Structures are given as C-alpha cells and as structure tokens.
C-alpha cells in the first residue's frame, strides 16, 4: 500500500516517483521480472492495487528500481525493457561525476581538470595570472595543436 | 506672440560641434550602438568608484547584493571561512563542472559552477572572525569600509560583537545589511533557501499548470528568488548611500528574501484582501490576456541532434495576439474564423473556458508543424511570436553577442569562461558595468588586504595562516 | 464569541463578493503573536537583548516617523502595459522619491486588465472609474498625470517635466520617443543631468530588438522569459509528468522578467545618480531589458554551455545540484524540505524514519546514498523523493513543518496567498499589509521589502492612482499651467 512496489517474486523495489504517479491509474511492469501490476493511485495513496495482471500489456515502466537484498543493485533509468529512459537531460551523456575539461566550448584552455599545481603565495594568496605554459606544459602543447588545426574559434 | 516662459527644444542652442550634429542625425539604432559601445566598457569610468564594501556572505542571495556593487565599480572584499570557503563553491549541476583549484592546499578540489556570477570582481580573503584574535583585524576592515552585508542567523554577529550595535560606534558612516529568510519575529531563526522562499511566499502557488490540467506547483528555474531579492537589497544599499551623502550617517537594513518573493505577486494580495479570492496557477497561459501564452508544436526543430534538449524539447512557441485585430488575423491564419466570431472582445477571450478552446485550436493547428514553421508563419503575417529558446540558442544568438551581454572572458586565474551576467543587468552609456574576473581561489587576496591594506606585517599574516585563522 | 447572524441572499457569485470585504472579514483573521511571545523565541537562543534591539530599531511600526532616503529625487515614469517601469519607479518611490507617472489620456491599458476579464474584481475610484488590481498594486506612491505625446503640445509639456526630473524611466517601443523628438538624445540637450532609463523585453537595438505587431500590439512578458532560456529551463520534465499536462517548459506565474528588469533599472539609476552627484554632474542613458536582466540571474546556465555544451534541462520541483532540496506533494499541498550536508541529510532521515521505518532500510542503508555528491544523481533524487513523499502523503504541511522543525531542518509549507496572509511570522511583521486608501478603500498589498531599516525605511503611502488625478498640481508646480489653460488642453485632447 505505498508508492513503491516491492515485487516479492524477484525481490525488486520499483520506485513510483511522487509527481508522475500522484494521481494515476494504469498498469506498470516490474523492472526485475515480467510481472505487470495494476495500480490506481489517488493523492499518492494506492486506492486499488498493486494487483498482478498476468499476461497483460503494461502502460509504463518505472524510472528507477533497485534490489536492496542484493547489495542495492541498481536498475538505472533507461535499462532496456526494465526501466523507462530519463530523457530530459542536459546532454546525451550523463556522467554524475566531475567532467575533466581542459578546453572551453570554443577550444581555449580553461582550468576544469585536477590536480592543479599550486601557485605559490603566502597564506594561499595568488596573483592575477595563470601561467599555463609553465604550470601545465602538456595542455599548452595540446592547445598549440588545436590552434594549428583551426579548432579554436572566437565563439 | 511667443510666451517667454515657454522653452521649446528648437529654440535652444543646437548641437555644438560637427560630431554632436552627426550624433543627433544618426539613425536611432546606430546611435544606440555608439553610446553603449559594448566592449569599450573599460574606457569609461565606474559609477561607484571609491566605495568599499565587505561581504561576509554565503550562497546566492546576499552575495549577489554585493556583486551588483562590484560590477558597478565598488571595491568589494569577500570574507570566507579558511580552507573551506563559501558552501556554494561546493555545488555543481549533477556534480559535473568544477574549476580548479579551490585553494592551494586542496589541489583535488574545485569550485563548482554553482558559485558563478554571485561574487564577480571581488577580492577574496579568509577569516575565522569569531575568534578573538581576529577581532581587531575585522574592526580595522570596518573602519576602512563603507558597508557590510552579512547573512548569519540573527544574533550570531551580535554574539561575536560585530553586529551593527557595535560597528556603528566604530564607524558612524557604516551601512550594515543583514539578509536572510525571515528577520525579527516568531520565525526569526528559521533558515531559508531560494526554494523555501518560492514555496513559503506564495510564488510557487501561482506558477505551473493547474491540477485540473494534471499539473503541480512549479519551481522557478535556478535560484531566481535569491538573485532577485539580492538585487532589491542593492537598491536599498544605494539609497542608503544617497542619504549618507546628505547626512553622513549610515544605517542598518534588515532584508528578508522570503518577503521579496511575495512582493512580485501582483494582484494576488489585493484580490484576496478585498474579495477573498485566492489566486491560482494558470500554466503557460495568461490570466489577464488571451492569446498570450505558450503552445506546443508537433515537431522539434532538431530531430537529428543527439542532445535531448534539442531533439525533444525545441517545440514550444510564445504566441501573443490579444488585441482584437491581432486575434482576428491569428484566427484567419489557423483557419478558425469561427473563433473570432465567437470571441470578439478580450473580455470574451480571456475567460477560462474560452482560453481552453482557443489554445487547443492553436495546438491542433501546430500539431504537424515545427517550431520554426509556426514562428515564421505568424511573424510573416506581422504577428508577435517567438520560439522558447534554450541555452545553446541563447549562446548563439547574434542579438546578445552584438549587445555584449553574453561574452567570453579570459579570466586571469581560471582561463576561458563564458559569462552571461554583469553586462546583462542594463547597459549604461557613461558608467557601464563590467566583469573583471568570475571569482578567485579561497584566500587569494590575503596578502593584499591584510598586509598591504591593513598594514599587518607578513610574519603576522603567515602566523595567522598557520593557526588556521585565515 | 457571539456570531452575528446576517440575512443574505445568494443568487450568483457576485452576491458573495460583498461578504468577503475587509469590513466583514478584517485582516488578520486571527491576531499575530504578541511581542511577549516572540521575546520568548529570542530567549531560546539567548538573543533576548539583540532581539529587543532589532524590534526597537527595525520595526515597521516606526517607519513613518523616520526620514526617507531618496527625499528630493524626482522620478518621471512613462510607459504602458508592462510592470518594469512601475516596479522600478515603485521601489524608488517606496524609498522616498517623488514619482510622477505619465499616461496617455485614455490611461495605461494595464488599468483595464483584470483576471479572466472579471470586472467585479476591479476597484472604483471616487470618479467612478474602474481600475484593475495589478495596476493598483504596482503603481506605488506615484502621482498620475496624463499627456498625449502624439500631439505637439503634449510633447512640449513632457519636455518641460523632464527638465525637472532627476531620473526618467521610459518603457515604449524602441525609438518611439526619439522619433517624437523626446528621447534621451533630445532631452539630454536641455537637461544634461537627467538619468534616462529605457526598459524593454529584448532591446531597442540589435537583431532581435522589440517589435510591435503590424496592428500595433506590444511585446509583453513572457517574451523576456522566453528569450533568455528561463522558460526552457523551468517546469517538470516529461519523465516526471506527461507532456501537455505539466511536463512542459513553463513560464513564471507572474511577469517575472519585467520585475527583474524593473529592479535592475532602479539599481542602474541610483548608481548613475551617485556618479552624477559625486563626480561628474552628468546624467546618462541606461537600457535594461527583461530578457537580459533575467539572464543575468540564471545561475551558471549559459556558462555551463561554454564549459561542456550542456543545455540546462527542466527538473520540476527538484534541484539537480542539491539533495534534499525540493518540494513534494503531501496530504494537503506541498512541503519544501532542504538540507544536503550529511548532518542535515541524516537529520531529515531520522525525522522520517521515526514514522516510516522502511525509509531507513531503503535510504540510509543504501551505500550509494552515503556520499553527498553522489546523492545528486538522478536515480538518487528519484529514490529519495519517492520515499520522502511516502511519508509526506500521510501528513499535512503544518504537521510536517512541526516535525521537521524539531530537527532544526529548513523546511516550509508551500503556501497560497490566503495562507501567506495568515502565517504567524508574516502577519507579525507584517509582509502582507493593509492600508486605507483615500480612493480605493482598504487594500491588502505586499509590503515594501525595504521597510525594515534603522534610519531610512521604505514605506507605501498609497497604491494606484485615479487617472490624471494630479494634473492640476503637477502642471502648475513644474510648468505653470493655470486652470483655464488646463481646461483648453483637455478639450484639445492633450491631457
């Protein structure tokens, strides 16, 4: 009676997110097995269901599910046939961790990678320069290559 | 006979030089370009030259009130906690974007893009000011400055003997700003965030699709209310500076971010007060005008792009035709003259039932069209329409590039960054805003301020640093 | 309390309106907490003395007896339809500037707008003219004069008023005033000290400058919101709500970009005034647009594109940078909960787990959710907020707030305007306030945000203004027009 469906057959927890399913009626397939559940939710409560509907076609897949008893194994969004994809993302690649960028979108150096060599100064102070040629010669080299190849623009 | 008391423009002495004459005759747009001259900001003076402001702030709301001054040319000093810095430095969308280093001692940690734009042009020092040993340095700063903005829980600075109660004794010209969620009163100690302000103040209740249409209350993207409220503090600070010029006296300003979100609700309060009617949300339509809203088109402008924001989302158009002739023309274009026959006045059109019929008809018409087809058809017919633009399109817009409101900045410490702030707050012909650097590493100006400005010997600065006081 | 029984007959909705007025149902419905009760709150954190000092020095009750910061600054405000110039001039007016609002003789069209066309929500002034509430609420402390700028005489009078102004805020289509010979180019010749501000949606120059339709209709907000990516970035993703039912890019419920442009105009104008008075004696030309000033405050969005070509996507009531930091539905509305550091994250969890043990099992024990940055991943947001809502759906906002406050969590209910007006803290200050207006009677309004100051607090003196009410005074005072001349001008359609 809640907005997760803990499927006892495959021990998978399907998370029914609070906005999509707040008021919803239809059939949802478990991300861990072939079970299809009918649910009818009103104001976030299960008014009817979850009720197994063997052999019926689902209306929707959950966006995320996991298996707490198997080391919280994740079934990430967009797993074919299990979860529906999460489309509304800023890029077609999703990292979720620091993107080590060395060059900006127009191809010029930007300090988006680590580690960065310290720029010496008392009490953490630093001046108003970043001597890339000296501090990161390999990036400087790469930059010169890019300039030659015409990959550096004004915009 | 001419009335001598009347001064007419043409009676006045005209342009005084050839250049002025040409300027007066120039086509208006060309003249605008010339007076605002994007890219030439540094050849012009700064409006707030000579003002020095301290910023003991965190997050977005209070920092932005000071960043406004810094962009206008004031010298602003941001004071952060040693080694850690502003918590906002540790936020980044989906944990993906950081610029390094945060601090010399932490080469693996960066400042997240969440920190962007809120503290431009400032000098960055560190100070653990609640320690007694640093009190004297803090007071020195106060004596040398015009004002301070802080955001700590009420009573905190007072406990540390650095509230306005104490500081006005040191510097009667001092302008002291406290910015936070609530201020004096029963919820005085309540913490606040941007999103809390949006929810608590009623703004969220009028934004988003109504539940009858399946929608929920919607958050304004970004930390809009923090920024917006911060700018209103700046208005109050500048007014206080104006008054100080006359009287020589500072003041204390207590500013609540939650309240500022209530301030922009328009008719919500008077409608409730007089008639007991509670303003509701109305999605992408307007409660007072029709047609004046956003419609969904059938096809994306970029079906083959990899980025989902282009592939799936480039489908929305703002359509505006609320005056009678505009609406009539719109009905003709979408082939629904019957709608014009049915809703001939704005008062007819703006009724909820009518809006539902009209926008449905527009979306039906647009169902087999791309966004740009819809915009082109409507604008070619002389009506007002535009695509709902995304970040890429805004970046690529020739308009903002020419106006200099989006530009690349060769940041002295971090390299090539794209900025959309500062220059975009308003073009000024004689004392334009400017962005000199996006931010600096934690404590980057400790020597500059403690040693050069406040006159502490280098050994003292080093000692404080070793003791983790700065 | 004895209830008075009233005889009422209700045949239509209109009949109910008089039953809701401020005479029948005065504000606030229940009194705010007393000062003694609030003193006890200060004492809880040992801030009695400081709290008392704040109340003694900052309380709005004392504002009217204090000086005004911008006394002596004269602002001419001239525009139609939009909020920008009204809000910008209103902020200056609240701080003591003398604001003169210039409208065409038929009035600003915003006066005629009312929600869903309902005339019964408009207020009548003493002349019997009706005015919409948006206009009344946003035109603050301003005098109203009328001038027909399409006539030569009207332009002449306008020019003379501008001679006396320190700040002029204009909001007409690009180049319109210049074409009439009363733009900055011309006015600065006769008043070089004038700070002239233009406000628009996209700009008065450039490839995407403001347009009017071929029938003369203006561009209004949300054209500003749409042009800077704000709308694209706001709203629920299709993954959380079906497209067409809220899972779409969403505009602000108010003309938000106009408000942002208005406040930045006030900042620019005051900075220019400072430079004029301190250094140069010269005025200048300022151009603020709704699109750009809103773009200024879109965090890092465009910067992000420059970093790795990301295009910000919608995330509804959630935030991709922080977890927890969202509102989600509860039994009687929506509840906002925030706290992303480990300390706060687990305190929220403890609060919920007390009533929903499975929360601990699925959230606290999940190794993937133990690291702060990893909690911002999409799947983590989905999981966290699903489980949080399982708790919230059983309780009301006020219960949730009470429970979370015990754990010192920054949490707050999502309130509607009636609830805002009655929230104890808000009515204690008060943030939604009432004033008895000479023309429109008792009005409820959002209080000036600059009203809480030690020396020069802002204040609202009156709201709205009957059209042309101050013609006689202003034209006499600054131009020297007498009664008979004014009558003539009226007949000629100039005022």
Automatic annotation (TrEMBL), chain A:
<protein>
    <submittedName>
        <fullName>Uncharacterized protein</fullName>
    </submittedName>
</protein>
From TrEMBL, chain B:
<dbReference type="GO" id="GO:0008410">
    <property type="term" value="F:CoA-transferase activity"/>
</dbReference>
<dbReference type="InterPro" id="IPR050483">
    <property type="entry name" value="CoA-transferase_III_domain"/>
</dbReference>
<dbReference type="Pfam" id="PF02515">
    <property type="entry name" value="CoA_transf_3"/>
</dbReference>
<dbReference type="InterPro" id="IPR023606">
    <property type="entry name" value="CoA-Trfase_III_dom_1_sf"/>
</dbReference>
<dbReference type="InterPro" id="IPR003673">
    <property type="entry name" value="CoA-Trfase_fam_III"/>
</dbReference>
<feature type="region of interest" description="Disordered">
    <location>
        <begin position="1"/>
        <end position="20"/>
    </location>
</feature>
<keyword id="KW-0808">Transferase</keyword>
<protein>
    <submittedName>
        <fullName>Crotonobetainyl-CoA:carnitine CoA-transferase CaiB</fullName>
    </submittedName>
</protein>
<feature type="compositionally biased region" description="Basic and acidic residues">
    <location>
        <begin position="1"/>
        <end position="13"/>
    </location>
</feature>
<dbReference type="InterPro" id="IPR044855">
    <property type="entry name" value="CoA-Trfase_III_dom3_sf"/>
</dbReference>
From TrEMBL, chain C:
<dbReference type="InterPro" id="IPR003673">
    <property type="entry name" value="CoA-Trfase_fam_III"/>
</dbReference>
<dbReference type="GO" id="GO:0008410">
    <property type="term" value="F:CoA-transferase activity"/>
</dbReference>
<keyword id="KW-0808">Transferase</keyword>
<dbReference type="InterPro" id="IPR044855">
    <property type="entry name" value="CoA-Trfase_III_dom3_sf"/>
</dbReference>
<dbReference type="InterPro" id="IPR023606">
    <property type="entry name" value="CoA-Trfase_III_dom_1_sf"/>
</dbReference>
<protein>
    <submittedName>
        <fullName>Crotonobetainyl-CoA:carnitine CoA-transferase CaiB</fullName>
    </submittedName>
</protein>
<dbReference type="Pfam" id="PF02515">
    <property type="entry name" value="CoA_transf_3"/>
</dbReference>
<dbReference type="InterPro" id="IPR050483">
    <property type="entry name" value="CoA-transferase_III_domain"/>
</dbReference>
């Amino acid at each position: 009676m809640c907005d997760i469906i803990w499927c006892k057959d495959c021990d998978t927890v399907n998370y029914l997110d609070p906005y999509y399913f707040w008021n919803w009626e239809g059939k949802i397939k478990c991300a861990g097995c072939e079970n299809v559940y009918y649910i009818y939710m009103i104001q976030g409560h299960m008014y009817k269901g979850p009720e197994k509907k063997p052999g019926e076609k689902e209306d929707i897949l959950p966006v995320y599910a996991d298996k707490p008893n198997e080391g919280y194994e994740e079934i990430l969004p967009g797993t074919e046939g299990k979860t529906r994809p999460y489309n509304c993302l800023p890029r077609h690649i999703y990292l979720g961790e620091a993107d080590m960028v060395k060059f900006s979108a127009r191809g010029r150096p930007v300090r988006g990678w680590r580690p960065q060599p310290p720029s010496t100064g008392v009490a953490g102070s630093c001046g108003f320069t970043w001597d890339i040629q000296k501090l990161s010669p390999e990036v400087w080299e790469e930059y010169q290559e890019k300039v030659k190849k015409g990959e550096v623009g004004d915009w | 006979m001419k009335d001598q008391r009347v001064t007419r423009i043409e009676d006045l002495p005209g342009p005084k030089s050839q250049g002025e004459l040409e300027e007066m005759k120039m086509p208006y747009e060309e003249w605008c370009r010339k007076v605002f001259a994007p890219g030439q900001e540094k050849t012009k003076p700064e409006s707030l030259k000579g003002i020095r402001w301290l910023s003991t702030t965190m997050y977005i709301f209070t920092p932005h009130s000071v960043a406004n001054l810094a962009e206008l040319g004031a010298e602003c000093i941001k004071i952060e906690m040693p080694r850690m810095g502003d918590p906002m430095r540790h936020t980044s969308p989906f944990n993906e974007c950081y610029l390094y280093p945060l601090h010399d001692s932490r080469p693996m940690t960066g400042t997240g893009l969440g920190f962007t734009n809120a503290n431009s042009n400032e000098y960055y020092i560190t100070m653990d000011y609640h320690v007694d040993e640093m009190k004297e340095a803090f007071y020195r700063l106060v004596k040398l400055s015009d004002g301070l903005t802080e955001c700590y829980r009420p009573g905190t600075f007072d406990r540390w003997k650095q509230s306005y109660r104490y500081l006005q004794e040191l510097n009667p010209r001092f302008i002291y700003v406290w910015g936070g969620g609530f201020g004096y009163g029963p919820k005085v100690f309540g913490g606040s965030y941007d999103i809390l302000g949006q929810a608590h103040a009623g703004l969220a209740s009028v934004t988003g699709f109504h539940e009858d249409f399946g929608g929920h209350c919607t958050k304004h993207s970004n930390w809009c209310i923090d920024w917006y409220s911060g700018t209103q503090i700046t208005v109050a600070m500048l007014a206080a500076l104006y008054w100080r010029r006359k009287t020589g006296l500072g003041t204390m300003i207590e500013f609540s971010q939650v309240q500022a979100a209530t301030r922009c609700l328009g008719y919500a309060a008077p409608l409730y007060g007089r008639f007991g009617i509670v303003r509701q949300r109305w999605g992408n339509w307007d409660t007072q005008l029709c047609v004046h809203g956003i419609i969904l088109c059938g096809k994306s402008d970029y079906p083959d792009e990899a980025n989902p924001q282009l592939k799936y989302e480039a489908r929305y158009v703002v359509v505006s035709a609320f005056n009678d002739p505009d609406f009539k023309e719109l009905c003709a274009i979408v082939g629904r003259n019957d709608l014009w026959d049915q809703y001939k006045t704005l008062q007819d059109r703006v009724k909820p039932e009518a809006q539902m019929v009209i926008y449905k008809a527009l979306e039906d018409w647009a169902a087999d069209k791309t966004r740009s087809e819809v915009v082109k058809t409507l604008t070619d017919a002389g009506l007002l329409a535009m695509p709902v633009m995304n970040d890429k399109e805004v970046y690529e817009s020739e308009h903002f590039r020419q106006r200099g409101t989006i530009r690349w900045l060769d940041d002295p410490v971090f390299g090539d960054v794209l900025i959309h702030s500062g220059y975009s707050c308003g073009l000024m012909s004689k004392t334009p805003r400017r962005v000199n650097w996006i931010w600096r590493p934690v404590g980057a100006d400790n020597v500059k301020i403690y040693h050069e400005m406040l006159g502490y010997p280098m050994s003292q600065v080093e000692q404080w640093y070793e003791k983790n006081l700065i | 309390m004895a209830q008075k029984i009233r005889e009422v007959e209700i045949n239509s909705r209109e009949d109910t309106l008089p039953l809701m007025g401020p005479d029948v149902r005065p504000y606030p419905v229940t009194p705010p907490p007393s000062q003694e009760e609030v003193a006890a709150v200060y004492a809880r954190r040992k801030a009695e003395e400081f709290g008392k000092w704040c109340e003694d020095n900052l309380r709005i009750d004392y504002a009217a007896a204090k000086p005004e910061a911008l006394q002596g600054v004269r602002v001419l405000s001239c525009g139609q339809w939009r909020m920008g110039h009204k809000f910008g001039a209103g902020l200056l007016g609240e701080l003591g500037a003398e604001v003169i609002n210039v409208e065409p003789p038929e009035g600003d069209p915003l006066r005629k707008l009312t929600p869903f066309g309902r005339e019964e929500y408009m207020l009548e002034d003493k002349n019997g003219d009706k005015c919409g509430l948006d206009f009344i609420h946003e035109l603050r402390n301003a005098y109203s004069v009328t001038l027909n700028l399409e006539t030569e005489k009207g332009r002449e009078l306008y020019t003379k008023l501008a001679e006396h102004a320190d700040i002029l805020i204009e909001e007409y289509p690009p180049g319109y005033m210049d074409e009439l010979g009363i733009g900055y180019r011309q006015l600065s010749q006769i008043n070089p000290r004038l700070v002239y501000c233009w406000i628009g949606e996209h700009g008065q120059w450039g490839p995407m400058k403001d347009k009017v339709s071929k029938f003369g209709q203006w561009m209004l907000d949300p054209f500003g919101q749409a042009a800077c990516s704000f709308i694209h970035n706001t709203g629920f993703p299709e993954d959380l709500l079906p497209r067409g039912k809220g899972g779409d890019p969403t505009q602000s419920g108010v003309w938000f970009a106009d408000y942002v442009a208005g406040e930045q105009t006030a900042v620019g104008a005051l900075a220019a005034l400072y430079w004029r008075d301190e250094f140069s004696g010269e005025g200048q030309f300022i151009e603020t647009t709704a699109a750009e000033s809103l773009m200024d405050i879109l965090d890092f969005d465009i910067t992000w594109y420059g970093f790795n070509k990301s295009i910000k996507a919608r995330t509804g009531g959630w935030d991709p940078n922080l977890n927890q930091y969202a509102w989600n539905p509860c039994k009687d509305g929506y509840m906002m909960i925030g706290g992303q550091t480990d300390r706060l994250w687990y305190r929220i969890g403890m609060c919920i787990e007390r009533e929903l043990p499975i929360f601990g099992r699925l959230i606290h024990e999940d190794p993937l959710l133990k690291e702060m940055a990893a909690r911002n991943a999409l799947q983590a947001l989905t999981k966290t907020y699903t489980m949080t809502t399982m708790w919230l759906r059983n309780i009301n906002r006020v219960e949730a707030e009470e429970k979370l406050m015990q754990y010192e969590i920054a949490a707050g209910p999502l309130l509607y305007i009636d609830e805002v007006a009655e929230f104890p803290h808000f009515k204690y200050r008060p943030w939604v306030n009432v004033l008895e207006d000479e023309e429109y009677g008792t009005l409820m309004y959002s209080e000036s945000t600059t009203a809480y100051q030690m020396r020069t607090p802002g204040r609202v003196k009156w709201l709205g203004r009957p059209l042309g009410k101050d013609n006689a005074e202003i034209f006499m005072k600054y131009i020297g027009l007498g009664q008979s001349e004014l009558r003539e001008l009226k007949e000629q359609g100039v005022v």
